[in-house]
Amino acid sequence: MTLYNESKQNRLDYQHQKETRKYIITGAIVFWGLILAMVFLFWRIIKHKKSLETERHAHKIQQAAMAGRLRRSNADLNERKKKQASALALSSHQPQTNAENYLDEPISKQILCVCNDKSNPIKSTIPVSAYAHLALSDIQKAQLKDAAMRHYGLLFETMKLQHPELKEKDFFYCYLCLLGLDNMQIAVLQQKSISTIWDRENRLKKIFGSDDKVSVILFGIINSQLSGC
């Protein structure tokens, strides 16, 4: 009887252990299943957020690119409108190219008087700095520009349209050339080295594509404007 009871107890213990292991394994499976499900869900959420961020970034880039193309298109359109307006304005005005009147301007007479003073001639053998007292003031420069634009306005507007790379210094050199001055006289009036003035003339010759003196080139443009009227 004792042996039977022990055998029965052993079976019960074995059955209990088996059930316990089953519960443990089931619980572990459920636990790790939940863990994996949470990890997968967390991964999906992160992936979805990254996807949204990527889409938003791509959308911003696309919008920026479209905005850039629109700005460039508007800028090109405005530039074409400006050129058309300038061309129309030029075509509606008769050229103002009376050289004699330009030379009769008070500022022109002052400059020519200084440069042609026989009692104190400007010599290329004397340093430019020795003629510092002959340098044009800012007021005189403004007066000369104003006079040049009154008499040669069409010329300079045409030059601006055809050669946008021209600078204000280039135009001022032209104002002086139209007075018939040479490079030494121009160097003195601007208190620039003679080499700087020669560089200015060579730059203009390169822009205009001619080996002629700048004054010759300018009067050539003027004559072509007159013949085209």
Helix count from the secondary structure assignment: 8
Return the average pLDDT rounded to an integer.
Answer: 81
Strand content: under 5%
User: Which shape, going by the Cα principal axes?
Assistant: rod-shaped
Number of strands: 0
Question: Main beta sheet, described?
Answer: none
Low-confidence stretches: 84-97
Round the Cα radius of gyration to an integer and report it. 45 Å
What distance separates the N and C termini? 141 Å
Briefly note the structural class of the backbone. Answer: mainly alpha
Pattern of helices and strands = HHHHHHHH
How much helicity do the residues have? over 70%
Question: Which labels suit this protein?
Answer:
single chain; 77% helix; 0% strand; 229 residues; mainly alpha
Would you mind describing this structure in some detail?
With about 230 residues, the chain is mainly alpha-helical. Helix 1 packs across helix 4. The radius of gyration is 45 Å and the shape is rod-shaped. The chain starts with a helix and ends with a helix. About 5% of the residues have low confidence.
Q: What's the topology here?
A:
Layout: H1 2-91, H2 99-103, H3 106-115, H4 138-162, H5 168-177, H6 183-190, H7 194-208, H8 214-227
Can you give me a brief rundown of this structure?
The protein has 229 residues and is mostly helical. 77% of the residues lie in helices and 0% in strands.
